Amino acid sequence: MPKPINSLKSICIIRLSSIGDITHMIPIIKTLQIHSPMTNITWVIGKTEYHLVKNIENIEFIVIDKRKFIETIMALLRLRKKKCFDVLLHMQVSLRSNLMTLFVKAKRRIGFDKSKSKNFHSLFINESIDSSGNVHVLETFFYFLSKIGIKSKEYSKDINIKDSKISILPSKEKYIIFNPFTSSRKFNYREWNINNYKVIIDYLANNYGINSVIIGGYSKYELEKSVLFNKRNNVKNMVGKTNLQDVYSLIKSSELYIGPDSGTLHIASMLLKPVIGLYATSNPLRTGPYYEMKYTINKYPEALMMFNKKTENTAKWGERIRNKNAMSLIKTQDVINSIDKILKF
């Protein structure tokens, strides 16, 4: 067991969302617990994301529901009256999270440096990380631990989820997981044409005898789009029928995962499943499946030149491509080629 390397009594972490970034937080929490075992950890987290990590032991969660403003304020007031933390790790730059820090008393208030600061973030902290260099989001989070003297990195992914009892497919039957959806936000250009998945689903069934499971959230948009798969014999539509722990179990028992940048893609990566990530509008080296990148289809450099007239050397790290045609650079044959690499063994 590693020796404790600091004497912090208490740490408060603010990281509300998204699901993908919450999966990136798990190694941060595990590293803290291993290398600073006497430190009490409080995590301010969003209601949706909490359901993925709620089984992690020895964490005090302050669960925030952004739709319930009064309840949120009351929970934060109780937190403020309860204690003064040795350290606040302010790991989100949204205006909401910045304002929430006003309710957290802490001697040290550590946040992002100017290169990643937004929404007056720098006004709510008194120390900042050094995030110079082009690294994955997960590695950026480790800079917060470096700031408090923890240089080690633990990549444990155990979040204490028991196997779900959800009925999916007959036992021992192999299946592939797809999530065609990314976000309900307007001007979201990360999604691949949903009709392309029909080609992939048929290819898997005809060439490998493997069925598919489609997953997604509860939004009207996702439910309406997923109806396209309801009458197909080789696919089971689970959109809107699962919670995050069900999704975790579904992915855990699957053969591989296919989809664009989303929270469930990062869950699949965390579970060390083969992941065929579909990337054209964002750089997978920054936001891709951290643990399983080798099958990712990366059309970002091509899209960057075509739509933004830039190269990876001239573009800002993390620059996004906001063009509805960018994902069309990914062809069904690209996905089929990656499938063959994974399944032909």
The count of helical stretches stands at 12
Mean pLDDT, to the nearest integer, reads 92
Rounded to the nearest angstrom, the radius of gyration is: 21 Å
Low-pLDDT runs: none
Helix/strand-derived class? alpha/beta
Shape: globular
- Specify the CATH architecture of the largest domain: 3-Layer(aba) Sandwich
Concise description?
The chain has helices at 19-35, 47-53, 69-82, 95-100, 137-147, 196-208, 220-226, 244-252, 263-270, 284-287, 300-308, 332-343, and strands at residues 10-14, 40-46, 60-64, 84-90, 105-111, 127-128, 175-178, 211-214, 235-237, 257-260, 275-279, 297-298.
Key structural traits:
six-stranded parallel β-sheet, single chain, alpha/beta, Rossmann fold, 2 domains, 16% strand, 12 strands, 345 residues
Written overview of the protein:
This protein has helices at residues 19-35, 47-53, 69-82, 95-100, 137-147, 196-208, 220-226, 244-252, 263-270, 284-287, 300-308, 332-343; strands spanning 10-14, 40-46, 60-64, 84-90, 105-111, 127-128, 175-178, 211-214, 235-237, 257-260, 275-279, 297-298. With 345 residues, the chain is an alpha/beta fold. The radius of gyration is 21 Å and the shape is globular.
Question: Secondary-structure blueprint of this entry?
Answer:
Blueprint: E1 10-14, H1 19-35, E2 40-46, H2 47-53, E3 60-64, H3 69-82, E4 84-90, H4 95-100, E5 105-111, E6 127-128, H5 137-147, E7 175-178, H6 196-208, E8 211-214, H7 220-226, E9 235-237, H8 244-252, E10 257-260, H9 263-270, E11 275-279, H10 284-287, E12 297-298, H11 300-308, H12 332-343
Parallel strand pairs: 1-2, 1-4, 2-3, 4-5, 5-6, 7-8, 7-10, 8-9, 10-11, 11-12
